[in-house]
Hints:
Layout: H1 7-37, H2 44-72, H3 74-78, E1 84-91, E2 97-103, E3 106-113, E4 116-124, H4 133-154
Antiparallel strand pairs: 1-2, 2-3, 3-4
Amino acid sequence: MNRPRHPRNFLSCIRCSIAFVPAALAAGAVQAAEQQTAPALPSTTGSVFTMLLGLVAVLAIMAGIAWLFKRTGLVQRAQGNAVAKIIGGVSVGTRERVMVIEVADQWIVVGVAPGRVNTLATMPRQEHVAAPASVASANFASWLKNTIDKRNGSS
């Protein structure tokens, strides 16, 4: 049984479809425009990497400046007017040292350990004479040369 179509139902379907087609086309066009014009969101991995790279760069610059100050002696010049000056020191254990400190015209020999500093001796200021390192290095150089000559001569 075929039912006759009512023109009223048919016309209402056409009206609905005519009303929805432009709306659907407009919505599709808006979505396409948003996809084209919307800026791509940055990935979190890229932004974290950029932040870490900046941090490493700043730390490297700070380390470079500290090295430059130490290399040029700017830090020592700033401390040149200090009341006490370290003349030298030697390690006598894993955490213990004996140091010579100059205060005014006097040298003070102190023992330094974790949590303690003890005065061992005091003496008048003397001319700072470095140990003859060239003699020790010359002895080592001659010993090394003799050892190499022995190995080359006996081989």
